[in-house]
Design brief:
Length: 180
């Protein structure tokens, strides 16, 4: 997280629970970005390739990040070859994924608006970590932590991507990833 000028967007408050008092006194974007690149630089060798993996990042986080990067003259390291939005993959290639035929009664959540399987990070992760709904004691919260808390979403994406039975990676030909 980084500090912002002005007020926190109401959407950010609703989705992430981030309020102005949560970011006051923190560094602004340039310093946070540089720290992140420093961390990434310690993990990657010059010949390595990196994939920025998000959940709904195409319509939210990645756009914000791109605007901030442009405003502050920041660029990605050459090892970052592309960004992968797992929600985009699930929505657009779901018929090729292992949970395409999941019945609503074993999915952990249904959308109140549509009645279809919920596509939230926690709903998908709940299904994946529970072995396809077999072990209801395993949820995103028990395995990864509460949604949107430090690193819990990152852990959830790893499960969605690399789970041996239900992971997306083996279906989209990126199974040989170095985990940072």
């Amino acid at each position: 997280r980084g500090n912002i000028k002005g007020e926190v967007d109401p959407y950010s408050i609703e989705v992430y629970g981030i309020k102005k008092e949560h970011v006051e006194g923190l560094d602004f974007f340039p310093a946070v970005f540089d720290r992140g690149l420093g961390w990434l630089g310690k993990l990657l060798q010059p010949k390595d390739h990196c994939v920025l993996t998000t959940f709904n990042g195409d319509v939210c986080d990645c756009r914000y990040l791109a605007v901030e990067m442009l405003q502050h003259g920041k660029t990605w390291p050459s090892q970052l070859v592309y960004a992968l939005d797992l929600l985009y993959v699930v929505r657009n290639y779901g018929d090729k994924l292992p949970f395409k035929d999941v019945k609503p009664e074993i999915w952990t959540a249904q959308s109140e608006k549509t009645g279809k399987n919920s596509m939230t990070v926690s709903a998908i992760t709940n299904w994946v970590v529970s072995g396809g709904g077999k072990d209801k004691s395993k949820t995103m919260e028990t395995v990864c932590g509460k949604a949107h808390e430090a690193l819990s979403d990152t852990k959830a994406l790893l499960h969605m991507l690399l789970d041996p039975e239900f992971g997306i990676a083996k279906y989209i030909n990126i199974y040989r990833l170095k985990i940072c």
